[in-house]
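Researcher: Structure prediction, please.
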Amino acid sequence: MKNIYLKQFEDAGLTLNHLRCNMSFNDFKLNSDNMIPVVVQDHENNEVLMVAYMNEEAFDITVESGIMTYYSRSRDEIWIKGLTSGHYQYVKELVIDCDLDTLLAKVVQTGAACHTGNRTCFFTTITD
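Model: Predicted structure follows.
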């Protein structure tokens, strides 16, 4: 893991938990941006919290730290979930789908998952 991210984790007082992973990022089928979508789910109640994307660097940081890290397409940079808000996602399990093109992250969510302050990003009903 790059020293810049280690420093950010240390400055935030976070305990890191290196994950054992039996696949590498190169095993995944990536989208046209060389990223993989990640569905994020509460590990206790299976509530879907959010969907985000990972590039290889975000995946590696997640595996090395045990803290969900994504690639922010809007900001065009690595996004350590919770670094600004304090609402971290601690990895309990990473699972790949049968096509190897989508990750499911089962996490312990601290605080809200959504930037709006909602527990989940999925709170707007669009059908009757």
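Model: Helices lie at 3-11, 56-65.
Researcher: Thanks, that helps.
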